[in-house]
TrEMBL record:
Cellular location(s): Membrane
InterPro entries registered for this protein in UniProt: AA/rel_permease1
Top-level lineage group: Eukaryota
Membrane topology, from the record: Multi-pass membrane protein
Gene Ontology molecular function terms on file: gamma-aminobutyric acid:proton symporter activity; putrescine transmembrane transporter activity
Membrane-crossing segments per the record: 62-84, 90-110, 148-171, 183-202, 209-230, 258-278, 290-314, 347-368, 401-423, 429-448, 468-487, 499-517
PANTHER family: AMINO-ACID PERMEASE BAT1, GABA-SPECIFIC PERMEASE
One GO cellular component, as annotated: fungal-type vacuole membrane
Classification of source organism: Eukaryota, Fungi, Dikarya, Ascomycota, Pezizomycotina
UniProt KW keywords: Membrane, Transmembrane, Transmembrane helix, Transport
Name of the protein: Gaba permease
Pfam families per record: AA_permease_2 (PF13520)
Main location: membrane
Length: 564
């Protein structure tokens, strides 16, 4: 038994009002550095972990990292090929409806994030809520799905950056140049390596930088919302309200209704990675509030701003949508800009676009490294011992995990060399991988763990929390299926096939095979690293006689069997 500490039942509320806890900052665990406020360190200790990272991020900066990863306009630009085929209705209403559903997912996650804010939250919650027989396997699966989903997100963002960067050169050369797959990969690789360097060296100001990234995003959005209609000055050049809000198209070989559903992939990918707020939990001050509000504010602002952007795009787009999709610039958004503001304006806006896309990649590198670090802290990754140490020199960050993510992204990015269809599977790896990681803890909570759930300072209430969680589960399952559909139609060719199903089955099948063949012998869930086990401990994975947080005392044997 790794830890046989027995904790007396104190009946203490595991979530004392964070504002009322003494604000005195103290050195944690003998370190001369001040890493966290007392309340945050105390709540983290209840989850079983000692404070090791420095809490540099305010609530706005936690929101900033998610909003920056969402990178609203670059993401819309990268995914217009999913929504344009369904016409303006797919672009405008597809965005509005899907974003609303994503907001519900965010609210369900916010309930959990406020209650138990820790960097590896998703697999931690899964282990906490799932049944004793399933929790180790499910937690292992979620940890891998989340880690690879985030690295897939990094790949897809940086691949999008490489395409946009190349398209600016194509426009500058008036379409007289076509980048080869090798050139795209070289730009991608340079971008990923830059992210590694910046995520390693800018740790002390990474929180502050998020505010700058938010401002850059807002400037780009404002520039686009103003430049497109102004560029199409003559109202006869713009599409009318009837076209924007009621015109359907179907440029796919699927039925029209399904083409509309496929347009949801654009908001689903764009408004992704809001779990980054959870992964920054251990670097956030007042995490029990910063995490839930960061999640909801980032989704909510993308919902509204994205709806406005889609209306503007639909009003200024050339109604010959096939021509826009088949643009010689390689990017529908570049064509839309070109048609409105000409070559110089397009070069300016596309340059701003790829700079913001670059910032998205930097933010997701940071978030992915924190999830990777949390998972290695719990010993679940290969070479966990190597990845686990924190670099004090570089500002209390998981430096090796930053470079582990960079290395993995560089390898996965090799798909760019095969074919665009293989590369686009990176988009769906992010969607499907993360959706599994988000839905599993929410599902485990409503199926097995409802009694164990102790709300944090943010809570949707007994009446709404469970129905919202069920809605989130259904939507996320739908999102996983959607991400696997070949957009080209029911009879895909090798080029138009969606390889997500292959990649994700490899990830999920590989993780489960690894667990059942080997890891089940040593992975018993999140480890306890805190030295003085506090009263009201929530962590109950592999220690004996620990409070579950709702008044029951459980005894857990080495095989994970519980008795109350
Ligand atoms: N807006 C990009 C989000 C990428 C991801 O879903 O991981």
């Amino acid at each position: 038994m790794a830890n046989s500490t027995v904790i007396a039942h104190t009946g203490a509320n595991p979530h004392p009002d964070m504002e009322k806890v003494a604000s005195r900052h103290s050195a944690i665990n003998g370190s001369p550095e001040i890493l966290a406020g007392e309340a945050d360190a105390e709540l983290l200790a209840k989850l079983g972990y000692k404070q090791e990272l420095r809490r540099n991020f305010t609530m706005i900066e936690v929101f900033g990292i998610a909003f920056s990863i969402m990178g609203l306009l670059p993401s819309i630009a990268s995914t217009l090929a999913f929504s344009i085929p369904a016409g303006p209705v797919g672009m405008v209403w597809g965005w509005f409806l899907a974003s609303g559903c994503i907001f519900v997912v965010g609210v369900a996650m916010a309930d959990l994030g406020s209650a138990m804010p820790t960097s590896g939250g998703l697999y931690w919650w899964t282990h906490y809520f799932a049944s004793p027989k399933t929790r180790n396997a499910l937690s292992f699966l979620v940890g891998y799905s989340n880690t690879l989903g985030l690295v897939g997100g990094l790949c897809s963002i940086d691949y999008g950056f490489a395409l946009m960067f190349c398209s600016v050169i194509v426009i500058a050369r008036d379409g007289e140049w076509t980048p080869s797959n090798g050139v795209v990969y070289a730009v991608f690789l340079a971008c990923v390596l830059c992210h590694g360097v910046l995520a390693s060296t800018l740790s002390k100001i990474m929180g502050k930088l998020q505010t700058v990234f938010v401002a850059m995003n807002l400037i780009l959005i404002a520039a686009t919302i103003i430049a497109l209609p102004v560029g199409k000055r003559l109202s006869s050049e713009r599409n009318d309200a009837q076209y924007i809000f009621t015109k359907t198209e179907n440029l796919t070989t699927w039925p029209t209704g399904w083409a509309f559903m496929l347009s949801w992939l654009s908001p689903i990918w764009t408004i992704g990675a809001f779990d980054s707020c959870v992964h920054m939990s251990e670097e956030a001050a007042n995490a029990a509030k910063a995490v839930p509000y960061g999640i909801m504010m980032s989704i909510g602002s993308c919902w509204i701003l994205g709806f406005i952007i889609m209306i503007v795009i639909a009003s200024c787009i050339n109604p010959d949508l096939e021509a826009v999709l088949g643009s010689s610039y390689g990017q529908p958004m570049a064509q839309i800009y070109y048609d409105a503001v000409g070559k110089q304006g397009t070069l300016g806006l596309m340059s701003l676009l790829f700079i913001v896309q670059f910032l998205m990649g930097l933010s997701i590198t940071v978030a992915a490294s924190r999830q990777t670090w949390a998972f290695s802290r719990d010993g679940a990754l290969p070479f966990s011992g190597f990845f686990r140490p924190i670099s004090k020199r570089f500002g209390y960050i998981p430096l090796r995990c930053v470079w582990g993510c960079v290395f993995l992204a560089a390898v996965l990015g090799l798909l760019c060399l095969i074919a665009p269809a293989a590369a686009s599977a990176l988009f769906s790896l992010a969607v499907a991988g993360n959706n599994v990681a988000w839905l599993t803890p929410i599902l485990c909570r409503v199926v097995w763990g409802q009694k164990k759930f102790v709300p944090g300072p943010f809570y949707t209430g007994d009446r709404f929390s469970v129905p919202l969680a069920w809605f989130a589960v259904v939507f996320l399952v739908f999102g996983i299926f959607l991400a696997m559909f070949p957009v080209g139609g029911p009879n895909p060719t090798a080029e138009s096939m969606n390889y997500t199903v292959v990649i994700n089955m490899f990830v999920w099948g590989g993780a489960l095979a690894y667990y059942f063949i080997d890891a089940r012998k040593w992975f018993t869930g999140p480890k306890i690293t805190v030295e003085d086990v506090p009263a009201g401990m929530l962590a109950d994975g592999s220690i004996e006689g620990v409070e579950t947080g709702h008044g029951d005392k459980v005894l857990v044997d080495e095989k994970g069997k519980e008795s109350v």
